[in-house]
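User: Reviewer 2 asked us to show a designed sequence for the structure in our supplementary figure. I'm pasting the structure tokens here. Could you produce the per-position amino acids so we can include them in the response letter?
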């Protein structure tokens, strides 16, 4: 039986591709506003290439973090990202570089301050 395109059989080292999921609910150390969350995210993504790894992988991880789950799955697979934690908090590239994403770039905290009009 020819298993053409079997992702499990064709993965290097027999590593199975993990289906990604949203992070578990979490709370920031103190309640923050949406504007503060956006600033934290921008600061992280602006500095992420300085943590090591490849700029292209960081860009793919950002695109995945900002996409719905189905598109995020496609993005990480297309970029060759090896997902260790299904919520994308820990990933690797094919060269062995480590990519750690804080939960605040992946989802909103449970104690986000809802401002008027939101």
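Assistant: Here is a per-position design you can include in the supplement:
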């Amino acid at each position: 039986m020819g298993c053409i395109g079997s992702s499990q059989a064709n993965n290097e080292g027999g590593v199975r591709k993990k289906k990604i999921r949203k992070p578990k609910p979490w709370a920031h150390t103190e309640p923050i506003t949406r504007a503060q969350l956006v600033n934290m995210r921008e600061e992280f993504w602006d500095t992420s290439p300085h943590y090591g790894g490849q700029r292209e992988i960081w860009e793919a991880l950002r695109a995945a973090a900002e996409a719905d789950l189905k598109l995020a799955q496609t993005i990480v697979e297309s970029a060759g990202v090896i997902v260790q934690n299904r919520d994308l908090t820990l990933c690797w590239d094919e060269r062995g570089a480590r990519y750690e994403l804080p939960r605040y770039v992946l989802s909103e905290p449970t104690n986000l301050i809802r401002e008027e009009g939101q």
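For the response letter, you might also mention the following. The first helix runs from residue 7 to 10. The CA atoms of residues 67 and 104 lie 14 Å apart.
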